[in-house]
């Protein structure tokens, strides 16, 4: 079974770029420390069939959005406030848009298909630079992207 994962990643990346919240937005983890103020990476966490209907599928695509901020760039309090504000804005934007366009039916906010919308904070070392990160889990309900074959 094959899923249209690329389309889901491109939809979220485009959405984040259009938001104007980030200096840089990319698909996949950066290989070197992101330059600038606030950056975001989009990557897949999980994908699976949630329901089978007559000839089509309803899928769960769980996307991770990781926000990066150099932890030495500003006072810790300022970084925390900025990260919290952007997590809130991205969450509000995504949950407020019904279908995000394309094959995405909706953001599965409460986790009807297993994973709920949420965020976790932590730290990541990239190339010797410590970043404050926030991982936003975005579960999406996607219509009919899987190819079923015998």
Describe this structure in words.
There is one protein chain. This protein has a single domain, classed as STM4215-like, CATH 3.30.2000. The protein has 150 residues and is of the alpha+beta class. The chain is built from 2 helices and 6 strands. The chain has helices at residues 5-19, 76-96, and strands at residues 24-27, 39-52, 57-70, 104-107, 118-126, 129-143.
What is the N-to-C order of secondary-structure elements (H for helix, E for strand)?
HEEEHEEE
What is the CATH architecture descriptor?
A: 2-Layer Sandwich
Distance between the termini: 9 Å
Going by helix content, strand content and strand pairing, the class is alpha+beta
Number of DSSP-assigned strands:
6
**Assembly level:** single chain
Radius of gyration: 16 Å
* Average of pLDDT: 88
When the domains are counted, the total is 1
Uncertain regions: pLDDT < 50 for 5+ in a row?
none
Measured by DSSP, the beta-strand proportion falls in 35-45%
- Overall geometry: elongated
Give a quick precis of the structure.
The protein is α+β, with helices and mostly antiparallel strands. The protein has helices spanning 5-19, 76-96, and strands at residues 24-27, 39-52, 57-70, 104-107, 118-126, 129-143.
Topology (SSEs and partners):
Blueprint: H1 5-19, E1 24-27, E2 39-52, E3 57-70, H2 76-96, E4 104-107, E5 118-126, E6 129-143
Parallel strand pairs: 1-2
Antiparallel strand pairs: 2-3, 3-6, 4-6, 5-6
């Amino acid at each position: 079974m094959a899923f249209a994962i690329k389309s889901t990643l491109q939809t979220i990346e485009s959405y984040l770029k259009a938001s104007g919240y980030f200096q840089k937005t990319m698909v996949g983890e950066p290989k070197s420390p992101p330059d600038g103020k606030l950056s975001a990476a989009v990557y897949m966490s999980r994908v699976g069939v949630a329901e089978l209907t007559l000839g089509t599928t309803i899928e769960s695509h769980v996307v991770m959005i990781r926000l990066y901020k150099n932890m030495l760039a500003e006072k810790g309090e300022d970084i925390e406030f900025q990260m919290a504000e952007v997590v809130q804005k991205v969450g509000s934007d995504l949950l407020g848009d019904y279908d995000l366009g394309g094959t995405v039916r909706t953001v599965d906010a409460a986790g009807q298909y297993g994973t709920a919308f949420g965020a976790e904070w932590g730290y990541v070392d990239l190339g010797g630079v410590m970043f404050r990160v926030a991982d936003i889990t975005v579960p999406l309900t996607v219509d009919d992207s899987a190819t079923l074959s015998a």
